[in-house]
Design brief:
The structure holds two protein chains of two kinds. By secondary structure, chain A is mainly β. Helix content of chain A is about 0%, strand content about 55%. In chain A, the strands form two sheets. In chain A, strands 2, 4, 5, 6, 9, 10 and 11 form a seven-stranded mixed sheet that branches. Chain A has a four-stranded antiparallel sheet with strand order 1-3-8-7, with no helix packed on it. In chain A, strand 7 (about 65-70) and strand 8 (about 75-80) form a beta hairpin. Chain B is globular and about 40 Å long. By secondary structure, chain B is mostly beta strands. Chain B has strands at about 5, 10-15, 20-25, 30-40, 45-50, 55-60, 60-65, 70-75, 85-90, 105-110. Chain B starts with a strand and ends with a strand. The chains are: A mainly beta, B mainly beta.
């Protein structure tokens, strides 16, 4: 079974630009969540989508947005990029079981803002 | 607010010894907790999940305990090997859905 796939793997953007990152979950997984990882802050939850609806949202500004398609694939967008947005963006997918959901991560998209 | 703390950012041990990593949480009582391994530049890899009614869980050389009274989980790697060198993260759930709080991680180095 293929794992979580994220594209692109690496990208460099200029401050003020916008970026879109893509995530294909494990087949059969309907929950997709996004995390930002930086050396200083660790892994921070951005948002989670389930059946095309945002189910949870972390404490990030409105410049960070996402969406999920009917095939469970998800995208996240960051507008008006700032230098501090440089980070590893991780997507994770999960089955939505009754108790104890395990989330499985992709390899991440490295974003550098210059 | 909920807080997750993992012991010392870095832990160095000799090959063959048992590594013990600590995860403490405050201000809430998670129903379960997960442990992940992360190698540099890679996404975290799921290792073990332990529920509040399970005192201990094992998988090969890995053992996790969950003490709801102490609000603490311990992660043990027995007979450690250099290949075990990585950052280990604990992650209890945060609220509804699949939102998780991640500790800052403990960087383990196993010295040959």
């Amino acid at each position: 079974k293929a794992g979580v796939t994220q594209t692109p793997r690496y990208l460099i953007k200029t401050r003020g630009q916008q970026v879109t990152l893509s995530c294909s979950p494990i087949s059969g997984h309907r929950s997709v969540s996004w995390y930002q990882q930086t050396p200083g802050q660790g892994l921070q939850f951005l948002f989670e989508y389930f059946s095309e609806t945002q189910r949870n949202k972390g404490n990030f500004p409105g410049r960070f947005s996402g969406r999920q398609f009917s095939n469970s694939r998800s995208e996240m967008n960051v507008s008006t990029l700032e230098l501090g947005d440089s980070a590893l963006y991780l997507c994770a997918s999960s089955l939505d079981g009754p108790s104890g959901n395990t989330i499985y991560f992709g390899e991440g998209s490295w974003l550098t803002v210059v | 607010s909920q807080k997750i703390e993992q012991n010392s950012e870095a832990l160095n041990i000799q090959e063959g010894k048992t590594a013990t990593l600590t995860c403490n949480y405050t201000n809430y009582s998670p129903a379960y907790l997960q442990w992940y391994r992360q190698d540099p530049g890679r996404g975290p890899v799921f290792l073990l999940l332990i529920r509040e009614n399970e005192k201990e869980k094992r998988k090969e050389r890995l053992k996790v305990t969950f003490d709801t009274t102490l609000k603490q989980s311990l992660f043990h790697i027995t007979a450690s090997q250099p290949a075990d060198s990585a950052t280990y993260l604990c992650a209890p759930p945060g609220g509804t859905g699949n939102q998780f709080y991640f500790g800052t991680g403990t960087s383990l180095t196993v010295i040959p």
